[in-house]
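Predict the 3D structure for this chain.
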Amino acid sequence: MTKQGIYCDPVFAEAYYHPASASHYEALTTPETAVLTLLADGKTTKEASQVLGLSARTVEHIRERLKLKVGASSLAALIRHAIRIGLIDL
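Done. Predicted structure below.
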């Protein structure tokens, strides 16, 4: 049950109300994980879109959704999150 009294999946509710938790690695979708990994590896949006076979706009949308999901305000913050959850190594 959400704060507004609407039922939603507990996993979604946890990801929505507590986005900064490192346990959200499991909550990332496959495209989100792929985009985050490529961006953290230094790929541009255009390069990531070519690797994944997606439009650049789709990759931008996924990046913005990731920022909202994990509470990041920049690409650098997204990369810090990827390191924190063990998605990439330094």
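Residues 10-84 form a domain with the Arc Repressor Mutant, subunit A fold (CATH 1.10.10.10).
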